[in-house]
Amino acid sequence: MRNNPLPRLDASAEVRGELLPHCRLQPGEVWIDRASGHRVGCLDATDPQSIAKIMDDERAQLAIHDPPYNTAALERRTIAEFVAWCCKWVSHTYSSLANDASLYVWMGADQNNGFQPLPDFLLMMRDHPFQTRSFITMRNQRGYGTQKNWMAVRQELLYYTKGKPAFNVDAEYTDIPKILRGYYKRVNGKMSENLERSRSNTIRAGNVWVDIQQVFYRMEENISGCYAQKPLKCIDRIIRASSLPGDLVIDFFSHSGTTLLASEMQNRKCFTIDIDPIYAEITIRRLEHFRATGRKGWQNGHPFETDLAGTRRDEARVPQETVQESLL
């Protein structure tokens, strides 16, 4: 199989120039899926008119946001500017949610920069009417190695609620294996282990997720060029726990389109936006690609392969044997 990835699209002006003519949405436009009612907009999450346009007077039961952690619209800003930027889309999210709804926000903590922007974001959220529910840590199975510090293997996920939304406990019994050993209690003179606390070989998800593989190039769901792709499995877990079939899910930072695809797979309707027309196009194409092929991504390829066929970039591909498999 030929290996044909895209480079990081936020750092490659030349490739962006090649892709933009193939994007169907211009800033301010919305694509509507006639099959399931999904909407994808090339819109600004901080602009109230943009949010009104994508929502069209509907209210969502669940919001899942993965904003740029220390940049805003691909432009580096100070912490104060970043927090002010976040304050706008958080306010728009609140007004877009139903009276009883959930909000999940991925937020990074740079250990080389005062763990920002996480602490200032947490303080900012105190000024909004959301209630805190949980601080979830997702453990990466592929860490960032270093000889002078602990290996970085975590991502932070904040869980807030508006009103009193339902939480679907039954949906949270997963394939997570029992991995923690330790003494539990003495029964008939024998000290039992923690692994023996129940007959099940799996456990309900807690707020430390250790079973989710972060996305990398060998996985079917990989979308090359997208530098901050979240695994389908974690978005699927959130959707099943905090929404019901037929509910509306919103995502104001679509990027690789994972929330839209997970919503499609779980029979939810999704309204999602991205300020970048390329990521909005990738989101639409990922849904179309899944419906046409059943595949969740392009693995060693990319969404614009047909458009770029015969170009210099297409001809520069390097033959490479790869493993065709999904690790999820």
Number of domains: 1
State the CATH superfamily name. Vaccinia Virus protein VP39
How can the largest sheet be summarized?
9 strands, mixed
* CATH-level-2 architecture: 3-Layer(aba) Sandwich
Distance between the termini: 21 Å
- Form type: globular
> What fold name goes in the CATH topology slot?
Rossmann fold
Summing up helix and strand content along with how strands pair, one would put the structural category as alpha/beta
CATH class: Alpha Beta
Low-confidence stretches at least 5 residues in length (pLDDT < 50)?
A: 315-328
**H and E string:** EHEEHEEEHEEEHEEEEEEEHEHEHHHE
Number of helices: 9
Strand content: 25-35%
Structure keywords:
328 residues, alpha/beta, Rossmann fold, nine-stranded mixed β-sheet, 19 strands, disordered C terminus
Summarize the entry for a quick read.
It is built from nine helices and 19 strands.
Protein described:
- There is one protein chain.
- The protein has helices at residues 13-19, 48-55, 79-96, 118-125, 232-242, 258-265, 277-293, 305-308, 312-315; strands at 2-3, 30-32, 39-41, 60-65, 71-72, 75-76, 97-106, 109-110, 116-117, 131-144, 152-162, 173-177, 183-187, 190-193, 202-204, 208-209, 248-251, 269-273, 318-319.
- With 328 residues, the protein is of the alpha/beta class.
- A hairpin with a 7-residue loop joins strand 10 and strand 11 (152-162).
- The longest helix has 18 residues, at 79-96.
- The chain is globular, with a radius of gyration of 21 Å.
